[in-house]
Structure formats: C-alpha cells, structure tokens
Design goal:
143 residues, mainly alpha, 71% helix, globular
Length: 143
Amino acid sequence: MFNPSREDARRFFLDAWRKHRERLPLQPQEEIVTEIILQHPEYHAVLEDQEGSLTREWSEVLGETNPFLHLALHLAITEQVSIDQPAGMRERYRSLLMRLGDDHQTQHRLMHCLVEALWHMQRHSHPFDIAEYLRCIDRASRR
C-alpha cells in the first residue's frame, strides 16, 4: 500500500505545478492536480516556493489554511466521484452540482463532509464511517 510521507505528498503537488509552469508533459494524476491548482490562485505563490513550502506549518488557530491539505481534499473528492466510491458518490455529486451550478462550491460542500468524517474517525479511533459520510453529503445537498 502506498503511504507517502508529508514531504512526498507535498512534493507531488509541487512537482506537478512546476511541470505545468515549465510546460513539461504531465502524468494523468498530475493533470488532475494541475486543474485543481489552477482553481486556487491564492496558493500559487506557496507552490512556487518549492523548498520553503516543504517544511512550512500552517495554523488553523491563526486562521491559516494548509494549501496542501486543501488541494488533497479536492483530489480525494475528484477521485471518489470518478470511481463512484463510496457507491452513490457520483450521483450525489451530480445532484448537488445541478443544484449549486458550480463545481468548486460543490466540491467544497463534499469536502466539509469528508473532513468531518475524518475528524470523527481520528477523534474516536473508529474506522471511517461510510454511511455517516454519505448521510452528511445528503444533508449538505438539502441546504
């Protein structure tokens, strides 16, 4: 099983962005990541600071968002929708997208549920609760 370190994960985003800027060929996963990064111009400067961003810490207490976490959550949602896992994810995404009319906002709604499910998993030392994750998405779709 692939279990990248924090540095490995960050380097993946940094390398994809560098290759995009240098107009080098991208692997399919890098193309997806680049599309996500292009939707986040507020993170471009961080991604261009290759060495500094590898070790930088962001503090939620100070109101900072970790750009790598944010981009990784977008990637996770994109992958879940593309393979329809958990089952029904693609239809839930399409339904919410039709209601909101904006892919980015739709992903943010889904990301909120993913973060909540991960937080509960970590906080209570339980396995990921797919049913609760999908219920959260269903609730978010009604808001």
